[in-house]
Structures are given as C-alpha cells and as structure tokens.
Design brief:
Layout lengths: L2 H6 L3 H6 L29 H23 L4 H37 L1 H20 L1
Helix pairs in contact: 3-4, 4-5
Length: 132
C-alpha cells in the first residue's frame, strides 16, 4: 500500500488489522448476498427496493420545500414532516433487521468474539436511532 492509498482510505492500518472490515465497493455496486461472501451487506438483495423507497422519501422532502415556497398551512406541512420522518424510521428499522439477519448471523459462524462485536455494533446503532 502506498502513502496515497493510506491517505485516501483513512486509517488503512486499522482496517487491515480488523479482519471483519469489509472492502469498499463503488456506489451502486450490487454484490452477492450470501452470508459467507466477504464484503457483502445484508441489504444487497433488497437494494433496488431500498433505493426506490429512499427516492420516495426524497420526493416527500422536496414536497416540504414546495409547500413552504407555496405558503401552505403549517399543520399540512407538519403532517408531511411526520410522514417523511416515519418513512425514514421504517427504512432504518428494515435496514437494521437485515443487518441482524445477515451480519450478526454471519458473525455466529466466526465465533463468540465476532458475535459480541456485531451485537455491540447493532446495539449502538439502535441507541442512535432511538435518540432521534
């Protein structure tokens, strides 16, 4: 690895030392979603559906902008904010479930230390989601 590689990849030494670190893939890359394949994410099988869902949420957010520009009644805007927020929360929960089914299940094959690390990682993600 060159100095340039280390600079562009962040802490390359830490990633190299972490055997569970997954290789980076180009945006939009679909990979095989079998648990034994390295670098595969739990959402791979549902990637197209997730992108479609996020585009719908993006449309809701743009709708909020239009509503403000058109001086729509406050309560109507708040209703749209609620719908957008619920959409993101639902997406996050689905992604979390896929993480648990794929990444945590894959860690079970690797042993107790890997399981503990993945469960701790998932717990922290849940904590962040609950704070919002």
């Amino acid at each position: 690895m060159t100095t340039t590689d280390a600079d562009t990849n962040g802490t390359a030494a830490a990633a190299a030392a972490d055997h569970t670190a997954q290789p980076k893939t180009a945006p939009g890359t679909v990979t095989d979603s079998t648990p034994s394949a390295p670098g595969v994410h739990g959402y791979a099988k549902q990637k197209d559906a997730h992108i479609k869902r996020l585009r719908r949420i993006e449309g809701q957010i743009r709708g909020l902008q239009r509503m403000l520009e058109e001086d729509v009644y406050c309560i109507d805007i708040l209703t749209q904010v609620s719908a957008s927020t619920k959409g993101l929360q639902s997406f996050g929960l689905q992604l979390l479930e896929e993480h648990l089914r794929h990444c945590v299940a894959d860690a079970a094959v690797q042993g107790p230390e890997a399981i503990d690390a993945k469960v701790q990682e998932a717990t922290k993600a849940i904590e962040r989601m609950l704070r919002t």
